[in-house]
Amino acid sequence: MKNIITSILNHEQAVCPHCGTKIGLRQIKEYFLKGTNHSIQCPNCDRTLRPKREPVKMFYCVCAGFLSVVIPFWLYILLIEDNFWKAISLSIITCIICILIVCLLVIRRIEFK
Predict the structure, then answer these.
(1) Helices and strands in the chain, H and E counts
(2) Mean pLDDT of the chain
(3) What one-character DSSP code corresponds to residue 24?
(4) What φ, ψ does residue 48 adopt, rounded to 5°?
(5) What pLDDT, on a 0 to 100 scale, did the predictor assign at position 47?
(6) 15 secondary structure, DSSP code
(7) Cβ distance 19 to 44 under 8 Å?
(8) Pairing of strands 40-41, 48-49
(9) Of 39, 46, 38, nearest to 21 (Cα)?
(10) pLDDT in tens, 13-41
(11) 45-60, pLDDT tens digit by residue?
């Protein structure tokens, strides 16, 4: 089980370009809340690090978030049952799954300059 989790959270590309130190998940998680305009410090050489590019394009995140809410909501309403609150709960669950997938993509694809 531990091997599965470590393979999912693999962030080998997240290294300092100056000293080669691997950047930890604790520092990478700041990009989830503050965005890619935020800079972090290397834990080894204390130099400022910024991402080379956005790990996942913002347009794709917005589209995925919108579609993960709207499509399950209307599919539930039209195909399963005409119950608003059950459809909302299904949409919230799919939105949370979408957010987790985007977070995993950011962890795996982030590179620093």
Answers:
(1) 5, 2
(2) 81
(3) P
(4) -80, 130
(5) 85
(6) B
(7) yes
(8) antiparallel
(9) 46
(10) 778 888 888 888 788 877 777 777 778 88
(11) 888 888 877 777 888 8
